[in-house]
Amino acid sequence: MHDVDPRLYTTVIREMIRHENDVTNHRIMWLLIVQGLIANAAVSAGRASAEVASALAAVGILVTLSAFVILYKSYQARGYLQFLGNEAKQGTLRDEDLPLFGWPSRRVKGWRKQVWLCPWIGKGSELLEPFFFLPMLLVTAWLFVLLRQWLALNAGGLAILCTILAVVLIAAFCVAWVWWQQKDEV
Fold first, then answer.
1. Is the CB of residue 41 less than 8 Å from the CB of residue 26?
2. DSSP per-residue letters across 77-108
3. Residue 87 contacts residue 93 (beta carbons within 8 Å)
4. 160 close to 145: Cβ distance less than 8 angstroms
5. Is 180 helix (H, G, I), strand (E, B) or coil?
6. Cα(148)–Cα(32) distance, rounded to whole angstroms?
7. pLDDT at residue 4 above 80?
8. Spatial separation of the C-alpha atoms in residues 145 and 171, rounded to whole Å
9. pLDDT band of 2, cuts 50, 70, 90
10. 132 pLDDT band (50/70/90 cuts)?
11. pLDDT at 25
């Protein structure tokens, strides 16, 4: 007995992708609202206390990384749903591989190789999408606020250093997350 008629798999997957897109949009909006509040507090506090501004910058980084975790999970889920959609179109999708909701506890081994450029990203142009670009930009900006008090670099040098650190931090998370998740592929 199937949860869904196999002829409707592609329709169900389309709806799941639409849902993930909506979730991503809500998460990005949440990120921007919270970042605006933290930035407002940091600007107000920066006039009075550099230590408070630094603490708020650290909070900004942590909030951004927290948001990136859920944005990246949603990105991975959309990639997996794309894989499942391709399987459904070919008529090879099994009922047990279609999750009822969210990121399934078990996934098809090697699914990323069939739909993505590499295990961490579907295509290079997605690095400019808001779910990647905004967290990278925000971490870079908060690192700049945090490190400008500790390092004697000009603004350009500090901006380059902060960008490199943000790229390394986000990339390391992506690599670690994919490595961890590949253990649950069968």
1. no
2. HHHHHHHHHHHHHHT---GGGS-SSSS-SSB-
3. yes
4. no
5. helix
6. 23
7. no
8. 21
9. low
10. very high
11. 95
Tokens linked to 83: 């894989």
Residue with tokens 């970042």: 35
The first and second tokens of residue 135, run together, are: 């967290």
Q: Which amino acid is at 115?
A: V
Pair 78, 17: CB distance under 8 Å = yes
- Residue 45 near residue 66, CB atoms below 8 Å: no
DSSP H helices, the chain, are 9-48, 50-90, 111-115, 130-147, 155-181
In 3D, which of 112, 85, 113 has the Cα closest to residue 98? Answer: 85
Residue tagged 């006039």 (tokens):
47
Percent of the chain exceeding pLDDT 70 equals 95
pLDDT tens by residue, 10-55: 888 899 899 999 999 999 999 999 999 999 998 888 777 888 888 9
